[in-house]
Write a structure and sequence with these properties.
The complex is a heterotrimer of chains A (348), B (648) and C (200). With 348 residues, chain A is α+β, with helices and mostly antiparallel strands. Chain A has 3 domains: 118 residues, no CATH class; 113 residues, Cupredoxins -  blue copper proteins (Immunoglobulin-like, Sandwich); 88 residues, Cupredoxins -  blue copper proteins (Immunoglobulin-like), CATH 2.60.40. In chain A, 36% of the residues lie in helices and 18% in strands. Chain A has 8 helices and 12 strands. Chain A has a 5-stranded mixed sheet, with no helix packed on it. In chain A, a hairpin with a 2-residue loop joins strand 1 and strand 2. In chain A, helix 2 packs antiparallel against helix 3 and helix 5 crosses helix 8. Chain B is mostly helical and 648 residues long. Chain B has one domain: Cytochrome C Oxidase, Chain A. Chain B has 20 helices and 6 strands. In chain B, strand 5 and strand 6 form a beta hairpin. The longest helix of chain B is centred in the first third of the chain and has 36 residues. The radius of gyration of chain B is 25 Å and the shape is globular. By secondary structure, chain C is mainly α. Helices cover 70% and strands 2% of the residues of chain C. Chain C is built from 5 helices and 2 strands, in the order E-E-H-H-H-H-H. The longest helix of chain C is centred in the C-terminal third of the chain and has 32 residues. Classes of the chains: A alpha+beta (348), B mainly alpha (648), C mainly alpha (200). Chains in contact: A-B, B-C. The interface between B and C is large, with 67 and 56 residues.
């Protein structure tokens, strides 16, 4: 599963640039974050060029067959076309069989070529070019993503949810499993899908070359809120990534005023059964880890932007936004709601 | 009653009116509803299949249109997530199982004996039974809507989401039991088609003279005998998990969720070839009529049909490329999945060559066949692209696959079916469908279909996953989805135009003679519609194109349709040797019977008991069913199944 | 003007021996049913090749106490069935009736032994994947056996009513073929479930 050699960065960058021009909306790629006709990760480049080759081959085949069909229909004939079969005599011309020979020969060549290109691309992208220094254990839940960052030092292991940070230019190993049903880890502009299957551990890897935020979404139907199980992969330069990791290990600041204290108390009563905040006594495992919640760009697994308004709306009535999801409506008074929200706002 | 003769030299005679009247009286069904409920006439059963299959098409189509309204724009709230999930699951089940195969069985049931020069299928009562079970299993499935618990895990129903832990209601039980129920129909039909093709034919109908639709249907049904048991086993095992706590698929106790995927796809991939190969056979037979020449490369096309079906058993893992299998195994299946395009390509080249070297007749049927070629190629290449493993990791479970499956299903099943109906409607009803309305309906369907489904390739490439009840704005999926919704409704209008054509033409269509298209095969040698006994005298054939023989001047002998074996001592038809078509046995056919319907009712009671966990009810259904089967199989002297003492 | 069919011997009429449609039908039915078992065995082998926390089968190789007599009985049952079919093919009613009756008794004995084996097991249906497979595969065979018993009983009754003769006895032949199938499936099941654990 190891790649024999890394794809040439120069060539693939050229392919990416060309693809970006030809890609959807011609360069306004921010508008199509899930398009995989372009790639920004090492695991994607070989696949993107193979995809384009197969797409172009397909279009050419469709074009040729359509032209042959139309030409066959409309070419001039000795007896003009008719609408009444009985008026046109039946005969068996001696020609025709060569179509099958020629067509099959050309098709076979194209198919074999596609198969061989497939095998070599598969071999190239199955494993990372160098041994990954970082391993992230991603666990699928209905309908959110748990991510545990592994480390040799136990004190440096931490868990986060729905937003995964990685350093640019370095391969990252993903260990994938699920606690409930089958999900699929998919960040189109970095990597194709690998399923998260309960009872087994799958492996994948990603590597982003360009800094930025990449959108992913669950790629295997997993129930009521499969449509709202997105994730974000944030690629940062190594230094910023290291700083982010350090920050994730820190406990939250102690409550600075009475509202926040009340909020934390309410949080521990109503929320801590399911949610955890590192450095506090809240250690629920049923819902996403909320440590440093305010550093995330979205909430509810990519469904809503992480702003005060949306956060309040979510806590007040999660069933309205993601009907059927496993967070119950909490019946908090508006005072409790504001307090909890203020507390969460301190989880920077 | 005399001793039933063990053998005789059958008489040979010319077709004559006295004989026709005698056979008419012997073979015709009872009138009215009684006739329909007890019929074993393959033509009536064929029509029942066609009408019922189209009813399911309409049901599945309405489900699709509702879904398209929900997806016409982002973040819509027309449907709840559960409603949407039930709709897409029922849409898939209805179309892929209860429409796509039975509609082809309808054609095959109606036409096989006519094409083969026989008076009926090998097992007339089993034939009726396979229809009633098809209808009953569909009704059973739709009862799930009535109790507000339709299946909601898609047409491939993966556990663990399908297990009781995550899906406690009866939704999935309806799915599992309905499929097992339907599998009975498929097995019965499969046995019938295979034995019929090997036996009940006319003299001279050797295998190399079979119409291509026979090859297509035979491949499909023979494959079904081996493939359908897989899904029955899988469904039964999952049902056991759900009802009795067995551990086949639940991961917590050592169960294997992937085993379901293997078993299911080992069935379902052959299945998708089963629902297109007979339709491709229809085109291979009808298109040449409208090109005024025999099909180019008949042997290659028949071989390609069989080879496609066989390779179809060896590609199933391409549905599982993302589950974490070793690269070597996946590479093998990528190779087979890419190479399976080749025999289909052979058929495309054959059709193009037939058109190119023939003289096209631009009937409505021909429009559908020509359009089908384009749609098949588009569907074929979109599948070919997914055969490449690392590319499939992006494409799988996106709208690219939805585009692919609809191009292959609507393109390679629905379009040939409608074209086939334009071709054969005159034979079945004695009236022509309206050609002008037919061409209009083709264009509306073709434009609507492409407008609806071509953008799905784009939506897929832009990363929209399948089976999502809604999607956000601002990711580029909004415009293609709106176009798709509009196209879907246009397609629906086109299909509606076709239905209008059928209903109006049934009353006021132009009268058709026996052979309005001057076609070559045996069904066109009968009246329109054919008499209940099909052929007054059994024809004998000397070539693939009996009615074109004189003009083509190719046959070594001569096909004869107005003179042959009389076989009028009772409900009789001929059985021949399997390969060469030499006369072998005079078969006695059973007459009408209510037993197929009654046994179906017992099986329905059985499954109703299972789905409601009223085990006593299931036992009642089973015991009654077994008793009625014994009654059905009771040896009858008229059919030659037992001796009759001479002194009775 | 009508004439008789030239150039060939007379054609047999109706369900006669191996040319009967019913026989062809049961051949393909058996093919389909055999596939069911092929897929069940596939499931068994799939599980047996997965990693396990303990041995496979979890409670050790299964006891052969009942299974070996069962195998003997099922083979005997095929022999008596063959004798019955051969008997009527030669027009002899006594072997037909005796053979069918003997097969019926042996089949019921087999059923009884199977149930005894099941009650003797240290595990139940829902214990673990192995037990689920064991009882389900055995259950499928038992169900086919039961259908065979119904068929034999019916054919025995029809034989007693004098329905069959040397020319027409297709139901006997069909039932015999089905019975051989049930026997073969048992042997395959015996090998898979009872022998392979000892070989591993």
């Amino acid at each position: 599963m190891r790649a024999p050699a890394a794809p040439s960065r120069g060539a693939t960058r050229l392919a990416v640039a060309a693809a970006a021009l030809l890609g959807p909306c011609g360069g306004a790629l921010a508008d199509t974050p899930m398009a995989y006709t372009v790639g920004f990760g090492t695991r994607d480049y070989g696949v993107v060029s193979l995809l384009w080759a197969l797409l172009i081959t397909s279009l050419v085949v469709i074009f040729i067959v359509t032209v042959l069909l139309l030409a066959g229909l409309f070419r001039r004939r000795a007896i003009p076309p008719s609408e009444d079969a009985r008026q046109v005599p039946v005969e068996r011309p001696d020609r025709g069989i060569s179509w099958i020979y020629v067509g099959s020969a050309i098709s076979a060549a194209v198919l074999v070529g596609a198969a061989l290109w497939t095998f070599s691309t598969l071999a190239a992208v199955s494993g990372p070019p160098v041994k990954p220094a970082l391993t992230i254990h991603v666990t699928g839940h209905q309908w959110w993503w748990e991510a545990r960052y592994e480390s040799n030092e136990t004190s440096r292991i931490f868990t986060t949810a729905n937003e995964i940070h990685i350093p640019t230019g370095k391969p990252v190993k993903m260990l994938l499993s699920s606690v409930d049903v089958i999900h699929s880890f998919w960040v189109p502009q970095l990597t194709g899908k690998t399923d998260l299957i309960p009872g087994q551990q799958n492996q994948s890897w990603i590597e982003a070359d360009t800094a930025g935020t990449y959108r992913g979404q669950c790629g295997e139907y997993c129930g009521l809120q499969h449509a709202h199980m997105a994730l974000a992969v944030v690629a940062q330069p190594q230094q910023q990534f290291d700083a982010w990791w350090e920050h994730q290990l820190e406990p939250p600041p102690p409550p600075a005023n009475r509202t926040v204290t009340e909020g934390q108390a309410n949080f521990l009563v109503h929320c801590a059964l399911c949610h955890a905040v590192r450095g506090t006594t809240a250690d629920g495992k049923l819902g996403p880890d909320l440590s440093h919640l305010m550093t995330r760009q979205t909430i509810a697994s990519g469904t809503l932007p992480n702003t005060i308004g949306y956060l309040s709306a979510w806590i007040a009535d999660p069933q309205h936004i993601k009907p059927g999801n496993l967070m119950p409506i909490l019946e908090l008074s508006s005072a409790q709601l504001s307090a909890v929200r203020d507390y969460l706002e301190t989880l920077k | 009653m005399t001793v039933l003769e063990h053998e005789r030299l059958p008489e040979v005679d010319e077709r004559n009116v006295a004989l026709q009247l005698k056979l008419e009286e012997m073979w015709e069904s009872a009138p009215g509803l009684r006739g329909w409920l007890s019929t074993v006439d393959h033509k009536e059963i064929g029509i029942m299949y066609l009408v019922t299959a189209f009813a399911f098409l309409v049901a599945g189509g309405i489900q699709a249109l509702i879904m398209r309204l929900q997806l016409a724009g982002p973040d819509q709230h027309l449907l709840t997530p559960e409603q949407y999930n039930e709709l897409f699951s029922m849409h898939g089940n209805t179309m892929i199982f209860w429409y796509a195969f039975p509609v082809l069985s309808g054609f095959s049931n109606y036409f096989w004996p006519l094409l083969l020069g026989a008076r009926d299928m090998a097992f007339p009562r089993l034939n009726a039974f396979s229809y009633w079970v098809f209808l009953a299993s569909g009704i059973f499935l739709y009862c799930s809507f009535a109790v507000g618990a339709a299946p909601n895990d898609g047409w491939f129903n993966y556990p663990p989401y399908a297990s009781r832990e995550f899906n406690p209601g009866p939704n999935i039980d309806f799915y599992l039991l309905a499929l097992i129920f339907f599998g009975i129909s498929l097995t019965a039909g499969g046995i019938n088609f295979v034995v019929t093709s090997l036996r009940t034919r006319c003299p001279g109908m050797s295998v190399n003279r079979f119409p291509v639709v026979i090859w297509g249907t035979l491949s499909a049904n023979a494959a079904g005998l081996l493939a359908v048991p897989t899904v029955s086993v899988a469904c039964f095992l999952l049902w056991m998990d759900r009802q009795f706590g067995t551990h086949f698929f639940n991961a917590q106790n050592g169960g294997q969720p992937l085993l379901w995927q293997h078993l299911f796809w080992m069935f379902a991939h052959p299945w998708v070839y089963m629902i297109v190969l007979p339709a491709m056979g229809i085109v291979s037979d009808a298109l040449p009529v409208f090109c005024r020449r025999p099909l180019v490369g008949y042997a290659a096309v028949c071989l390609a049909t069989v080879v496609t079906m066989m390779i179809g058993f060896g590609v199933w893992v391409h549905h599982m490329f993302a589950v974490g299998l070793p690269s070597l195994g996946m590479s093998f299946f990528a190779a087979t999945s890419i190479l399976i395009s080749l025999p289909s390509g052979v058929q495309v080249f054959s059709w193009l060559a037939t058109i190119w070297t023939g003289r096209p007749i631009y009937t409505a049927a021909f429009h559908y066949f020509a359009g089908f070629i384009v749609l098949l190629v588009i569907g074929g290449v979109s599948g070919f692209v997914t055969g490449s493993v690392p590319v499939d990791w992006q494409l799988t479970d996106t709208y690219w696959v939805v585009a692919h499956i609809h191009y292959v299903l609507i393109g390679i099943n629905l379009f040939p079916v409608i074209g086939g109906l334009f071709y054969w409607f005159p034979k079945m009803t004695g009236r022509m469908l309206d050609e002008r309305l037919g061409k209009w309906s083709f264009w509306v369907m073709f434009v609507g279909f492409n407008l609806g489904f071509f953008p799905m390739h784009i939506t897929g490439l832009l990363g929209m996953p399948r089976r999502v009840y809604t999607y956000p704005a601002g990711v580029g999926w909004t415009v293609p989805n709106l176009i798709t919704t509009i196209g879907a409704f246009i397609l629906a209008v086109g299909i509606l135009m076709f239905f209008v054509n059928v209903f109006v033409s049934l009353r006021r269509g132009r009268t058709a003679g026996p052979n309005p298209w001057d076609a070559p095969t045996l069904e066109w040698a009968t009246r329109s519609p054919p008499p209940p006994y099909n052929f007054a005298v059994i024809p004998s054939v000397a070539s693939r194109h009996p009615l074109w023989e004189e003009r083509l001047q190719e046959a070594e002998g001569t096909s004869v349709v107005d003179r042959g074996l009389v076989l009028d001592h009772h409900h009789e038809t001929l059985a021949v040797t399997a390969l060469d078509g030499e006369p072998d046995v005079i078969l006695k056919m059973p007459t009408e019977s209510y037993l197929p319907l009654l046994v179906t009712l017992c099986i329905s009671i059985f499954f109703a008991g299972l789905v409601s966990t009223l085990w006593w009810l299931a036992a009642v259904g089973a015991v009654l069913g077994i008793a009625l089967c014994v009654a059905w199989l009771w040896p009858l002297p008229e059919v030659g199944q037992r001796e009759v003492p001479a002194d009775v | 003007m009508s004439e008789t069919f030239p150039y060939r011997p007379p054609l047999p009429i109706g369900s006669i021996g191996l040319r009967s449609s019913g026989f062809w039908g049961v051949v393909f039915l058996v093919l389909s049913e055999a596939s069911i078992f092929a897929y069940l065995f596939f499931a068994y082998y799939y599980f047996s090749t997965q990693p396990h926390p303990g041995p496979w089968p979890p409670s050790g190789p299964p006891d052969l106490t009942w299974a070996i007599p069962q195998s003997v009985i099922v083979l005997l049952g095929s022999a008596t069935m063959w004798w019955a079919n051969r008997g009527i093919a030669r027009g002899a009613r006594a072997p037909l009736l005796l053979g069918l009756a003997a097969t019926l008794v042996l089949a019921i004995a087999f059923l009884a032994l199977q149930l005894a084996d099941w009650f003797d097991k240290p595990f139940s249906l829902a214990t673990d994947p192995y037990s689920s497979l064991y009882f389900t595969i055995g259950g499928f065979h038992l169900a086919h056996e039961f259908v065979g018993i119904v068929m034999i009983a019916a054919v025995l009754a029809w034989s007693a009513l004098g329905y069959f003769g040397p020319v027409r006895h297709a139901p006997v032949t069909v039932t015999a073929f089905y019975w051989y199938f049930v026997t073969v499936i048992w042997l395959a099941l015996f090998f898979t479930l009872y022998i392979t654990p000892y070989l591993a």
